[in-house]
Structures are given as structure tokens and as C-alpha cells.
Amino acid sequence: MGSSTVTAVHGEAHPAHLQHHFVSSDQQFDAAKMGMWLFLVTEILLFAGMFVAYTVYRVWHPEVFVAGATLLDPLLGGFNTVVLLASSFTVALSIHYIQQGNRTGLLINIFLTMAAAVTFLVVKYFEYTHKFHLGIFPGEHYAYSEVSMPYVAQFFSIYFVMTGIHGVHVLIGVGLFIWLAVRAIKGHFTAEWYTPVELVGLYWHIVDIIWIFLFPLLYLI
Amino acid sequence: MGDKGTFWMPEQASKMAAEIDSLFYFVFWISVIFFVGVIGAMIYFAWKYRHRPGEEHIPDPLPEHKATEAAWIVIPLILVLLIFTWGFKAFLKLNMPPPNAYPIQVRASSWAWNFAYPNGTSIGTELHVPVGRAVKLTMSSDDVLHSFFVPAFRVKFDVLPNRYTSVWFEATQVGEYDIFCTEYCGTGHSGMLGKVVVHTEKEFNEWLQSSGQGDMTPEEYGQVLYTQQNCIVCHSVDGSPGVGPTLQGLYGRNEQLQDGSSVLADENYILQSIVEPNFQIVSGYPPAMPATYATLPAEQLDALVAYIKSLAN
Amino acid sequence: MAHGHHITPFRTLLQTFIALIALTVVTVAASQIHLGPLNVPIAIGIAVVKASIVAAFFMALKYDNRVNFLVLAIGLVMVVVFISFTLFDTAFRGDIENVDHRTIDQIERTEEALKAREGQGPGGG
Amino acid sequence: MSAATNSDVGADAPAVHYLNHDKSIRSWLLTIDHKRIGIMYLVSVSIAFLVAGVLAMLVRYELLSPGQDVMTAETYNKFFSMHGIMMVFLFIIPSVPAVMGNFALPMHLGAKDVAFPRLNLASYYIFLLGGVLVVIALFVGKVDTGWTFYTPYSERTSDAVLFMTMAVFVAGFSSILTGLNFIVTTHKMRAPGLTWNRLPLFVWGIYATSIVQVLATPVIGITMLLLFLERLLGIGIFDPALGGDPVLFQHFFWFYSHPAVYIMILPAFGIISELIAVFSRHPIHGYRFVALSSVAIAFLGFLVWGHHMFVSGQSAVSSIVFSLITYLIGIPTGVKMFNWVATMYRGSISFQTPMLHALSFLFLFAIGGFTGIALGVLALDVHLHDTYFVVAHFHYVMMGGTVIAALGGLHYWWPKITGKMYNERLGQIAAVLIFVGFNVTFFSQLVMGSQGMPRRYYDYLPRFETMHEISTYGSWVLGAGLFLVMFYLLASLVRGRQAPANPWRAATLEWTHATSPPDEHNFHHTPIVTRGPYDFRAVELGGGDGHAAHAVPGTAAPTEA
Ligand code: HEA
Ligand code: HEA
Ligand code: CUA
Ligand SMILES: [Cu+2]
Prior knowledge:
The complex is a heterotetramer of chains A (221), B (313), C (125) and D (561). With 313 residues, chain B is of the alpha+beta class.
């Protein structure tokens, strides 16, 4: 890893985006990307807590999870999965285009991703309201009489907390895409410098990956 | 060792205590040896190689010895594996009761202990056990976490709500030993104490037969129960209100109830208040009295009523 | 400076996307068939494959600095540690009798169920 | 490059440096200079330490005799909880990394700043927000849960716990961002020639710490979030009354909080490595072993959390696994201890204040570590768990270990941070006072603990009175020592002698290549490193920087001595 140390060459013309404490754009880009990966790992560990809760309660009460899954709609969940996968694709494309200096490609794909994220949230909203309507609330407020075995409330606590926190991440993603779009329109990004697009892209893929696990664990099995 | 224990460890009063103490002293002496070795060397070097004024030499770097590094990895490793093995064997013994252990049920609630015997006797604060016989306590909590700790027996285990846990011990000496609650449980945590009273087998059986009454009159016995069953936690006998109303002058009083009605506190009312506390709630008080007293044996209920009667004005 | 950055070709991205959709279809289909105890591992296995594909191609880990892969790998090891070591407890709770593996609620429910069964009398079961 | 001379490390006070190049308040509050951020952390965590320390003195005062002395049981419970929470989350976790790490790490690396300076400032303000939430929680109601927040008690007591869980969540975020920043800085910002084998051990310590911060802290975040939701919505994951499992909460809590104890100690190890080497004028013995043992401890630290739960009702299998791995941590720690002592062998040892603290660290941490081993023994922990033996153990490692090391580090870097020398004599007196006071306070607790005195007890049986008395008297000596430190350090700001660039004749870059206090951008020129961090001879011969005429210029690494 010694290769990451760089030789200082003073007098080199600094590009505008290069902060004073970095020696080169590459160093700055690599640093930002590694920082982002570290952040993604903290996100994974944050969700790990809920996966632990999921596993523990599933091992204790498997029947509850099977019953709980029947109350969730795999079609809506599956649809949302496809939506998120598509958004991952478009976000990867947006990076692909800006790397080639294609700003229109970048902008179109940012908007497509944003649209997908909003679709996801809308579907989630309908799923939630439907549940609330039936009296399916997390924990002690659970009041759905059709399925009232012991510990089913735990299943829905886990369901709501997991998808809720995931949903918050999607919402944050929407905010980030709006920010990216504004900057893209202002022409901030070039083939030389597109770090924010890259970082938000990474973030968005993690949000997608988490959903890739949530979908089968909650809806299917 | 004797009765007072050693500098580090309290008196030993159970079968496992001696083994735990040997283990403790084993770890202790290994630690002392290493401590003296390491810190002794440090002090010696600090003195021997101290910088002397005027001396300006810079010492040569020492080469790294693979063998030394390996030695101080391997030797401690062997020692800790030894300690581990012993610790884990003793741990299993400490937690696996022999099959014929004498069973007692323990209930913890903030901030009191209650012990129930197979014959229905139940008593707060004081755990009576026979000497020389394995006893298994099956414990549960009514509210938050507590922990049952008897230093003289070297046993401790958390008491959980909604789950049974257990400890066992075999007392080796007649006497009285402290019980502590060692899981933080709120304001009264440090007051959640108790006593283990170790009897000879014969005394224990007598105590159990009479449910602890011995040759006391019902009033006297009721007074004992008033403390043992923790009534004292909520009810005073001097007229001052506590969590619950005072018991002084209760008998024969016209009690104002929460629903607006009133009732004459006679024997029946008092008995019912104890076994079915939420049936009639006294006005101005929360329905906070535990319903657990319903399981008290009849003699004890009678004794309590008799005692409360004796407090009439 | 962009010379240093790998540009993932459009074809690769598209193929990745198609593979992901295909796997989603497979996982939904597999869950509809009853394979007994196999359903859970299959679903998780497919999810792991999908996640790896996203990481490798969309997130370009395959072409990236090794250190970023290491970061992710260590993070995942910790997730496994967290889950497995917690399971050492919860899956084996009560292994030496000093702790009951059931909660008191569960014990009471079982007793009630037994009582109800008895209440139905002989032949009722 | 190699044309640079020693003139930039002269003994004279630089006229313009990072402290005075811009004196406006704004330039402080919005600074992205890692050194200034370090100072802001220093002020904040010192206040937290002072408040939490005063709470501890009150706790000790109440325990002077059985029964009520100066406060009620409720107040006592509030006080020890606040003491624990503030000490852990607001003082010790940010202390060494965020203060000395911020100040020294980029300089050790020969960098101008950390990788993400603005993030660094953000993490300071997030920390501050955490602190504000703690204060709010303090005034809204009683937080009397202990620092462990065990359910279900934490779900039954006052609602102020809601604020406290949020405070811990927020403070955790700050800790994550700091760790993340340092990892990237260490990877990407090293000066030319500074290979991994030439990193000062302080950097290795902070690096290992940062890994733990990044991997463990998110879990306290989700734990606090779940606890919050549980109180708010009754989601029933941890509350037995709702079908949850209180022991599961303990797993969640300790998955973070055990690694957190290594967040506390690893940077301290780093400081001690620096101090022992510098004040023995001897390269650290077994450099690679000391460096890698930090990483080993960081990793093993994730596998032992269940040793806090031997009597909690967890399965015996897990107790056994956790106990076994617990001892393994003693091994890399031992490697460090032995190598430190070996470093002193044939050294040339001087006893300035930082070194006194380092020696006192070795003494106290050894006791703390060995008592830790005793607690890790399954059958012994049954007796010792939740007694003052545990309290003494963790004060020996946290106060006797981390805080003493931090004091050593503070004295060591004080001339660099402030450009002033403190009063050496008072420093030595205070170091001895603290050492003696500490032992009196906490050794007595070891004894009463193994005798059976439970912790978190407001009141106690008469037979523990003597030991409690001794402990309380000791805490007065300890407190006096610490106040003395505060006094002469503050005094040095006004009356202290100007510090030379390298008063300890150390060999790391902040001493050899920067003025005291340093320039706004740390170094006038990016240093080029051609030697190891403990090459005192090179410092003596060539002025110590890699730039001296005979030093090998360029980035090629010469073989190490
Ligand atoms: C800085 C913080 C810190 C550090 C470094 C440690 C270090 C260690 N701790 Fe400690 N610990 C705490 C902070 C810390 N601890 C806190 C805060 C608590 C209580 C929390 C609460 O409940 O509130 C606690 C509680 C605690 C418990 C639970 C006790 C209980 O509640 O019942 C245990 C049990 O195993 C334990 C063990 C250890 C061990 C084995 C080490 C080891 O890392 C020590 C290793 C060091 C050495 C062993 C000494 C040097 C080695 C040699 C010289 C080599 C030779 C060695 C051998 C032959 C063994 N600790
Ligand atoms: C970093 C961690 C840390 C530190 C340093 C301390 C320091 C001290 N602690 Fe602490 N303590 C804990 C962490 C710490 N504690 C924790 C986690 C608990 C458990 C809580 C729980 O059970 O939940 C605990 C519990 C605890 C108890 C047990 C309470 C109980 O169980 O009932 C006691 C009792 O004696 C105690 C005493 C002390 C004393 C006397 C000090 C003294 O060392 C304090 C001395 C400090 C001062 C007097 C302040 C002086 C400071 C200045 C003047 C500022 C100067 C600034 C600079 C030098 C920069 N502590
Ligand atoms: Cu009950 Cu502490
Ligand atoms: Cu620990």
C-alpha cells in the first residue's frame, strides 16, 4: 500500500477542485472514495443490528415469520425490488456517462434514478397505510385479529423498523439526487471531476443491496 | 481460613466456596508473579539505566529477538489456557445442581425477595435452608432485572422477568449470611438485602413445619410476617401514610373507597384486601399492592389479620 | 487525471442489470415452491449472489483499489461475528438447565393448552 | 526539496503560528485546521472530565459512611449514572483520539491536515450536540440507569432516558466520523517515504482504534435507536413484558461497549509507546510486534463481549467461548508490556513528567489487566461480577490506564500545542500525587469487591466501612493531584517559558520538522522521510530532519537499523 504515498511536486498547477492539503486529484479522489466505503460499512453495521434481531427471533419463533410473510404482498415487494435494481442501473449509467464527459447522459440518469426512488417510496406508503388500516402496527400496538399468534407483533416490529430505516435512507437518497441534479445542471461535473456522483452512487447501491436482503427475508420466506 | 475469611475473600460457607477460592488464589499468584516480574524489571531498568547528567551517549538499538517475542507469547498462552480450563470446569459445577436438590422458588420484585417452599410456606427477606444439603433456587422477577448474590456461598445469578433462572448451593456451616441484589434495579437497589439462615436439618424441618411460627402467638407471628413479607415497605404501623395506607387503627375504621362508597374494615375486609388487593381500592392510593399474597398459607394470613387487629385504636 | 479511473462499459452494466432481474424472478419463483427447509438458504443464497453482483459491477469493486474491498470484507466479517456469536447464546439458551429455554409466558401457554386438551375429556383429542 | 534547512525548526518562537495567524472568534469556530479542532476538543472534554470527576467526588463523599450522608438514594443513582455516561461517552472515548489524535496524527504523517477537514469540524459539532443533549437529559428528569441502560429498567424509569439515548446516538456519530477520517488520513496522506514500517506507534494505535470506532459504533447507534423506539412505540424487542428479551439488549450493548474499551485503551498504548521510546532514547523494542498487536487487540476485542454476561442467563456455550477468547487478548497486550519494558533495557532514561506518567501507566494498567483476567475466569466472575472488584478493574484500566496515558501525552505535546513549557517540578509532584491517590482510592475497592461489596450501592453494610473510608480519602488525594495539573497547565499559558521546537529530542516529524507551536500548515515544506520514528541518533547528528545534507534524499527507503 506504500504506493498510495505520493511525491509532492510543488509548482504544479492545482486544478480548482483540488483542496490545498491534497497533493493530487487522484489522491483526493481515492481518499474520498475510501472514506465513502468506510461510511458504507458503518451503514451495513447499523443494519446488522436489525438483522441480528431478525435472526434471533426467527430462530426462536420460525412459525411467526412464515405467518407474517403471508401478510406482506410479494408482488408489491417484488415490484419495488425491480424498481430499486433499475435505479441502481441508472445510477451506474450516470457515472458511466459523466466519465465520458456526457453531461446530458448524466442528468437524464439522475432524473431516472430519482423517479425510481420516489416510486419506491410511494409504493411503500401504500403498503404501510394498508397495514395501518388493518391494525397492523409495530409491537404492543399490534391489533390485527386475523393473525394473532404470540410474537407476531415482534415480526411486525422488525418489519417496520427495518423497512422504516431503509425508507429513511431512500428518502435521504432522493435529497442527494436533487442536490446532484442541481449541480449537474450548473455544470459542476466533468470527466475530470465527478466525485460527488461517484459517492452518491455508492451510497445508493448500498441502499439497494440492503433491500436485496430485506425483500426475501421479510416477504418471501 | 476460619470464619472471617481471608484478606481477599469473605468467609466460606458452601461446598463450592473452597474451590472458587483456590482458583482465585491461583490466578492471584500468577498475576503477582507476572506483575512483580514486569514491574520489577521496569523499576530496576529505570534505576540502572537512568540518564546521568552530562552523559550524552545515545544507546544502541537492540535487535529484535524472535525467540524472546515467541517466549512471551507462548508462556502466557499456556498459563491462560490452564486458568480457562479450571475456570470453566468450576463454572459448570457451580451451575449444574445435583438432581435431588431441595427446591425453593424465589421471586424478586423491586425491592424485595420472597422465598416459597414446596409445602406452601412463603417468606420474605429470610431464606431458611438446611445445612449439608444441596438447595436449588428457581428464580424469577416481577418487574426488572435483579440478581441473587450470596458472597459467602460464592453464588450469583441474574433474576429475570419472564424467565426462570436458578442457582444452587450446599451450605456447610450453620449461621446467617448476607444476600445482596447485584443487578441495578432502581432507587431501592442497595436496600434489596436479605439473609440466608442456615439451620441444622432438624431445626430446619421444625421451622418448615410451623411455617416459621414456632411457639409465637398469632399476633407476634403476624408482626414477624409484617416485616418478612415486606408489608413494611408500603405500610407503616405508626399512622404515617406510605405507598399504601397505614395499618394503625385500620381495624374497625370506616374506609373511604375510590369508587366513592365506604366500607367497615372488619376481619373479612382485611383478609380480602390482602389476598385480593385490587378488589376494593382505598381512595387516594394507587392499586399498587401485589396480588402475590393470595398464595400465603392460611396460618400466615390469619396471623397477619390478627396482628392488624391488634393495631386497632 | 481521469485516465486512472476505470469506465465500466455499457454492455457490462446492462448485463448486470439483466442478471439481477433474472435472479429476482428466480427468488420469487423459488419461494412459491415448497422445498421444506431449503427455502430459506436458497433465498439467502440468491440474495448474496445479487449483492455480490451489485458490489462487483455497479460499485466497480472488481476494478477498484483493493483496499476498498478489504474495508467491505472486514465490515461483513463483523456482521457475521455479530450474528453468529449472538446465536451462540440465543440458539442454545438454557443448555445447562440453570436457565429455562422457554419464557414464563410460553410455559403458561403450554400449560393452558394442555389443560384445555384435558378439559375436552377422553376421546376429545 | 532537500535544500530545506534546519532553520524552520529553530528554538525561537515563530512570530506567526496556527494559534495567532487569525485571532477572531469566527476563525476558531469555523476552523478546519486539525490542530485548532484538537484544541476545541481538548477544552470540551476537559470540561466533561471536570464535571464527571466532581460527580465522582460527590459519589465517593456519599460513600464515606453507611446511610445517607449528603444526598438521597435517587440523587446518588443519578450521579453515578451521569458520572459513568459522561466519563465514557463525553470524555474518554473522544479524549485521546479526538484531542491528541487530531493534533498529532496528521503531523506524524507529515500531512498538512486530515483527509476531510470539514468533516472533522462537523464531527466536533456533532459531539457538542451530543453534549448538549446530555445536559438536557440531566435537567429534564432523572437518568438513573447506569451507563449500561439495561432493559427493562431503562424502559420504566423517567423519560429523560429518551434524551440520553439520543445523546449517545449522536455522540457515537461524531466518533464514527473521527475514526473514518483518521483511517483515510493514515492510508492516503502519508508523506513521501513514510512507509507503514516507519509510522510512529501512536499512529498505529490511533489507526487500530479508528477501525474499532468505525465497526463498533454503528451498533450502539442502532441499539439506542431500538431502545428509543421501544420506549416510544413499545416494539418489544428487549422488553420481556412485551415478549422481548432483556439479555438480547445486553448483547447489543456490549457488542459496542466491549470494543469501546479498546477504543479507550489502544490510543493510550500508542502514547505510551512514544513516551517510553523518547524518554529512554531507545527505539521501541519489537516495533512490528507492538504495531501489529494493536491490530490483533482491535480484532479480538470484537469477539469477547459476552464476558460481561456470564451470569445474565446467556447460554453456557457462549459463556465458554467468550471466556476463552477473553484471555487471548491478554497475549498481545502482554507483548506490548514486555516490549515496553525491554525498550527501557540499556536505555538512557530520564524522568520528566510524561515519563513518570508512562511508568505509572505500566504499573496501574498491569493491575487493571490482571484483574481483567481474573474477571474473565468463568467461575470467578460469578463471585466478582457487579461488585466493586469490577469497579476497581475498570478504573485501573480506564483511569489508571487511559487517563494517566492521556495525561502523559498531554504533557508531552503541551509544548508543541501551546508553545509553552509547564512547571516541571509541579508536574512531577502532581504525577506522584495522582499515582498514590489513585492506588489508595481503587486498591481498597478491589479488596472490598472481592469481599462481596456490590456496585451501584448507595448504602452498605457496616463491615465495608473501613475500605470505603480509605477509598474516599484516596479520592481526595487523587482529586488534589488533578486540580494541581489543571492549575499549572493553565498557569503555563500565561507565565510559561517559550518552548523550543524539540524539548524532548524526539524523532517524530512534529518535533523535528515543525516549530512550537507549528505553522498554520504544519510544515513549511512537505517532509521527506528517510528514517524510522525512533531514530534518535539521526536526530542528534543531522538535526533530525530528513533534510540534513548527509541524509539520503528522495523517497527510497533505506534499510532500517
Ligand atoms: C480501558 C478499558 C478497559 C480495558 C483495556 C479492559 C481490559 C480487559 N478487561 Fe475489562 N472492563 C472495562 C474496561 C476495560 N477492560 C469496563 C469499563 C468494564 C465494566 C463495565 C461495566 O460493567 O460497567 C470491564 C469489565 C470487564 C469484565 C466483566 C466483569 C463483570 O462485569 O463481571 C471482564 C471479564 O472478563 C473484563 C476483562 C478484561 C480483560 C481480560 C482485559 C484485557 O484486555 C487485559 C489484558 C492485560 C493484561 C492481562 C495485563 C498485561 C499482560 C501481561 C503482563 C502478560 C501476561 C499475562 C498473563 C499471563 C495473563 N473486563
Ligand atoms: C473514564 C472513565 C472514568 C474515570 C476517569 C473515572 C474516575 C473516577 N471514578 Fe468512576 N466510573 C466510571 C468511569 C470513570 N470513572 C464508570 C463507567 C462507572 C460505572 C457507572 C455505572 O455503574 O453505570 C464508574 C463508577 C464509579 C464508582 C462506582 C459507583 C457505584 O457503583 O455506586 C465510583 C465510586 O467510587 C467511582 C469513582 C471514581 C473516582 C473517585 C474517580 C476519580 O478518578 C475522578 C477524579 C477526577 C477529578 C477529581 C476531576 C478533576 C479534573 C480536572 C480538575 C480537570 C482537569 C483537566 C485536565 C487535567 C485536562 N466511579
Ligand atoms: Cu434488585 Cu437490585
Ligand atoms: Cu469487556
